[in-house]
């Protein structure tokens, strides 16, 4: 949802030219998953600010940069996912003031931009875009004209803004980058003789793993020699430098055609990390910050999440229900405006890969304000969710670049399964009769997933499902969220119609849509498979072809369905993760055959930081 990046170097002192343009382009490429409809950079050198921006992706921008040849030791860059104004050259960031003295990039939404724009226009400012962002350089220019320093001017501008923003700017004549954060993510990268700023760490991961996570209200002035963080009144604030354990290679494509395929193949390693050290040899769960008894006071569990994370939450709710612990799952977009009642014994679990999804953050803020205890289950250590919630459980999947979530779903389910174990033990006082089997199945998940990846099942099927009227996905128990997730992945990257249903729900309406031209993907987990087989027969009798995803030992399923995608035989609670890997591969191969933009599907962005 828009990516911003910035870099400043102290190279003049070190004898090289310290030009940041290539670093900015590289930083933007690493952030393209956040937005890809237009992009731009601005640098400051000597007495000028040079802006190059284009509709399209980073390749189009790089072409334009090759023509204009901007240079500078300080610069900002942006890759956009449009909210205000179409993806045009004019609406692309950076935006400047009338005198081209200030160039600003922005992620977020400025809610009061209309009134600010009218006020600035009345004072003689002219605007060249339809964006909310463009008011910012004009506000900064006003403050500079009143004698403010650049960081003081940014503070003055930020004070006038309502909404959410991460802003980065360069100012003519200053070899520095200035930035402010309010409600949208922003991190500083610290390297010898260089500072980076970005919406997300992968932007500069090849240069440094030392980062400073900024907080709302922070304003930064960074030069090649250092950086200062102040609050909105200009008082210095101390933000520690932390080291992230992601490697630069984690954010590279590594010979795969797409990040999505690479990330599907990373699932064995990601699952290993999610579970590693969290289950002891004697079969006990060890969740670092959650010793036994951590959840003894919990009387009510509410999950809040969006998209794939919502499906992982449904999966966890099912596991809890099977253990006799009731829980509710809310779509965060709904919860943010219509929250469920909570009290201090309510545990609100925000499941969010990025830790930055605006609806999810808004939901936990509301719940916390009403007294609930909050827990983030996230992939990103310094994310807003991790920092704002009372506690955090990390899924340890490593950076996920493909917009469609794959490995993080598996890792979320693995981490949530362990959380379910801890919660169940604490809330019911019993370990649950099948716990050992489940923990063994979790331990085996990496090799079970590897077994699926070593086969080529879905690749051979793709051609059959490329031009159909619709695609249905059904499942029950944990197979139901997997069916929803299978359909989400399919529609997201193939752009073909797909819907997921609880298997038993089909006959209550959706069956009217089933024809010989609507293949049905049926997920079997080993629990109540006979009922799902009835549902399969229902759709087959309407002429639909059925692809069954079930244990390799399920002779009944194999004999009934039209195509069979086997998964290793395992505990039903883990079978959903395995079935989901098969469905990820189906979606990937169909999308590939259709020539879709798999890593950056149209209209989507990875981190949805606006409500
Ligand atoms: C789908 C997908 C999205 C995200 C959703 C929530 O493939 O990636 O549906 O799951 O936007 O994002 P996080 O988990 O970052 O809160």
Give short descriptive properties of this protein.
22% strand; Rossmann fold; single chain; 8-stranded antiparallel sheet; binds fructose -6-phosphate; alpha/beta; 6-stranded antiparallel sheet; Glutamine Phosphoribosylpyrophosphate, subunit 1, domain 1
Protein described:
This protein is of the alpha/beta class. It folds into three domains: 3-250, Glutamine Phosphoribosylpyrophosphate, subunit 1, domain 1; 258-454, 3-Layer(aba) Sandwich (Rossmann fold); 456-611, 3-Layer(aba) Sandwich (Rossmann fold). Helix content is 35%, strand content 22%. The protein contains 19 helices and 24 strands. An eight-stranded antiparallel sheet has the order 3-2-4-1-10-9-11-14, with helices on one face. Helix 18 links the parallel strand 23 (546-551) and strand 24. Helix 14 runs parallel beside helix 19. The relative contact order is 0.09. It binds fructose -6-phosphate. Fructose -6-phosphate is lined by residues 306-309, 352-354, 357, 360, 404-405, 488, 492, 607-608.
Summarize the structure.
The chain is built from 19 helices and 24 strands.
| CATH fold-level name of the largest domain | Glutamine Phosphoribosylpyrophosphate, subunit 1, domain 1
Beta-strand segment tally: 24
Strand order of the largest sheet: 3-2-4-1-10-9-11-14
Number of domains: 3
- Share of helix among residues? 25-40%
Helix count equals 19
Largest sheet: 8 strands, antiparallel
Poorly predicted ranges: none
Reading off the top of the CATH hierarchy, the class of the largest domain is best stated as: Alpha Beta
**Strand portion:** 15-25%
Heterogens:
fructose -6-phosphate
CATH-defined architecture of the largest domain: 4-Layer Sandwich
Which structural class do you get from the secondary structure elements?
Answer: alpha/beta
The CATH homologous superfamily of the largest domain is termed Aminohydrolase, N-terminal nucleophile (Ntn) domain
* Average pLDDT: 94
Radius of gyration: 25 Å
Shape: globular
- Termini separation: 11 Å
